[in-house]
Amino acid sequence: MSSLLSQSSSLIAFVRVVEAGSFSGAARHLGTTPSAISKGIARLEKQLNVTLFRRSTRTLRLTPDGHLFFERVAPLLRALEDSGDAIRPTGSVRGHLRASMPSELGRLLLPGIGSSFLLEHPDLEVDLNLQDHHVDLITEGYDVIFRVGSLGDSNLRARTLARMAMVLVASPGFLQAQGRPETISELRNLPFARYQLGGRTLPIVFASGETLLPKGRIGLDSGFGLRTAALDSMGVAYLMRCIVQQDLEEGRLIRLLPEQALPSLELHAIHGFGVNTPIRVKLFTDFVQKEIQRLLG
Prior knowledge:
The strands form 5 sheets. A 5-stranded mixed beta sheet has the order 4-3-5-15-6, covered by helices on one side. It is of the alpha+beta class. It is built from 11 helices and 15 strands. It folds into 3 domains: 80 residues, Arc Repressor Mutant, subunit A (Orthogonal Bundle); 111 residues, Periplasmic binding protein-like II (D-Maltodextrin-Binding Protein, domain 2); 98 residues, D-Maltodextrin-Binding Protein, domain 2, CATH 3.40.190.
């Protein structure tokens, strides 16, 4: 450990290269030269007796050993950078927060983030990534990500914020043309705006255990896309109720088969800081939880 601590500049360079995707990007961030970064990585590889990167003229990729080393080192480095949080008053937060959440969840939360959270914390900058695919919290350098659904096995810290009710919806024009289903069997015959994850259409599972694999000519990978497709009469959509609640209340969308219960999905906040959660992460997570609970009524 002591020998690694003596190479702290090389460890910092290694983490910055992974986050920036290049030696030149890391050099700009650290105020040094690509040559100095390269030499620091070479020293670290020699000390560890492993190859951390696969290098070519166009690409720079982590080796399996490099990826494993990064997953261990990056949270430690971030914990050191955030050590000042431990002695700073809870209400005082500064610095830079990188977060990711589903697109439609972001659409609902952005007004409150701008009108409340940022005003309460004027010394904090927030970079918010709004997309539905599963980002890599460690490799992509996020402080916290918000994810709906099952987490699977993970060494990351997860906090459950809410349970999100799910609904099946379609537009009045779509139902006028296609007919309104009364049973799951009739629903199977209707075209869907399919939700895709990793190029695969995900099935819909009812509380009874019955499963439906949506079929339709369009597949989308975001809640924003599914809601838009449903509003444009392109198919039935399976969505979190909170993101279409106003559409339902104002008649732009109609809920289908309300008597067929759908399991709710958990909303999680996930970070890689272990038990030492930085204040900026805790405050933002608390804010998201409070806003979600308000939206859920």
